[in-house]
Amino acid sequence: MGKVQAALSVMTVGVTGAFATGALGLSPDPVAAEVAIAMNSSTACLGCNVETGDGQKQRAMSSVRAAGLSVAIHGSRQFAVDSPDSQAQPGGDGTPDDPQAPALDDKAYVPPAQVEPPLPELPPVPQLLQRDYPDCREDHLHLADPHDKAKNINACTTALDNYYSGVLTEYRERMNQYQDELSRIYNEKVAGRMEYSAASRDRFYQEIMQEHANSDPDGANMAIYRAAEQLYQADRNYLSDRYCYNTGCGGYPVPENYGYTYVAESLAKTDKPKKKAREKSADNKSCKKSRGRGGLLGGIFGSVVGSVAGLDDVGTLIAGAVGAVLVGEIACKLSQDEQEKAAEATFAVVEQEEVGAVAKWESPTRGGVSGSSTVTALNTEPNGRKCLTITDVAIIDGEETRISKQMCRAAGESKYAITA
C-alpha cells in the first residue's frame, strides 16, 4: 500500500471509529458489533485497496455501510451536540452573535398594549329656572279698591301653590331619577369592566358617590330648591297678611273704601270725592313693585345662594331681605337705600318686642323722605307663637303713607316674618 493510501486509510479509520463509538454507545446491536470488529482490524475503509484475505475487502466495506446505517437509523445525541457541524456558526441568522437575534427574555409572551376607553359622562343636573317662579306677590299694588286687591292676592296665592305642587314637587322627582341614573351608569358601564383599570373604576365610583350625596335634600345640588321653597313660603305668608289687611281679617279693620268701585255709581257723592278717589287710584298705579325684588330672585335662581352665600345662609338671605319685613305699599315708593333704612327700623322694634316701641329713619339720599315703625299690638298664642302688629309710616314730600303689617315667629324660632 502506498504512503498516500495509508494516510487516507488511517484518517478513514479514525472517522469511522468515531461513528462506530457513538453508534455502539447508543445501540450495541449486531450491526454496531460489526463496525467495532472492522475498526479493530483497521480495514474499515471505503475505497481502500487493502486486502487481508479473501473477502476481507468486501467485509470492510459492508462494515462501513453498516456503521453509517446504524448512525442514520439510531442517531447519536452526543454526536449531534459535540459535532462542530451541529453548532451554530457565528454571524448567521439566529445565532448568538447575530445582533438581530432576540434575547431569551424577549421571547416571553407580552400582551399587546390596550388603550383605556373614556369613562362615561354624567347626565346633566336638573335645574330650577327663575322664569317658572310666579313673581306676583306685589301685582295688587296698582289696584285702588281693596276688594280688587284681595282678588288679585287670591290669584297669586293660587299660582304659588301650583308652583309648589307642580314645579317643586316635579323637581324633587327629577332629582331622584337623576340619582338612579348615576347608579345605573356605574353598575352597567363601569363596575366589573376589565377595559378600565382598577384605579379608574375606583375614581369613577368616588365621583358618582359624591354627586349622589350632592343631590340629597341637604346637598349642594338642592340649594336652589331649598331657597325656592323658602321664598315660596315667605311670599305666601306675605300675601296672607296682605289679604287680611285688605279685607279686614286677622285683627285688621275692614278698609273704609273696600268695594267702593262697585258702589260708587249708586252713592250720591259729589264730584270732589270721586276726583280724590281717581287721584288716589292713579297714585297707586305708579307704584307697582319694590325695587330690589328682581335682585333677590336673581340671587336665588342664579346659584348665588349655593356658591356665595353658602348652604347654611339660605334662610338668612331670604329673611334678611327687605321684602321679608317691608310691605309693598311702602317699599315700592322707596329707593333701595331707603328700603334698607326702613327695614332697620322694623328690625329695631321687633327686637324690643313690646307695644309702643318706635324706631324712626331718614333717607340717606333724598331730602323730605322719612318714616317710622311702631309696634301697636303683641299677641302670644297658646302654642308659643308670637305676633306683632307693626305700623309703618313713610313720608315723601309731605305725603304720608301709613300701612300696618303683622309679623310672627313660631315657638323656638328667633326671626319674625310677615304673615297673617
Backbone shape:
elongated
Strand content: 5-15%
Q: Which structural class should the secondary elements be placed in?
A: alpha+beta
* Main sheet properties: 5 strands, antiparallel
Domain count, please report it: 3
Report the strand count.
5
Q: SSE string, helix = H, strand = E?
A: HHHHHHHHHHHHHHEEEEE
Rg on CA atoms, Å: 54 Å
Detail the poorly predicted runs: 3-92, 274-285, 304-312
Spatial order of strands in the largest sheet: 1-2-3-4-5
**Alpha carbon gap, first and last residue:** 146 Å
Helix content: 40-55%
Separate helix tally: 14
**Average pLDDT reading:** 74
Describe the 3D structure.
The protein is an alpha+beta fold. The chain folds into 3 domains: 3-86; 130-319; 340-420, no CATH class. The protein contains 14 helices and 5 strands. The chain has helices at 3-26, 30-40, 56-74, 77-82, 146-189, 198-214, 223-247, 260-263, 271-285, 293-301, 304-309, 314-319, 328-331, 336-352, and strands at 358-362, 369-380, 386-396, 399-409, 417-418. The protein has a 5-stranded antiparallel β-sheet with strand order 1-2-3-4-5. Strand 2 (369-380) and strand 3 (386-396) form a beta hairpin. Helix 1 packs across helix 3 (56-74), helix 5 (146-189) runs antiparallel to helix 6 (198-214) and helix 5 (146-189) runs antiparallel to helix 7 (223-247). The chain is elongated and about 110 Å long. The termini are far apart.
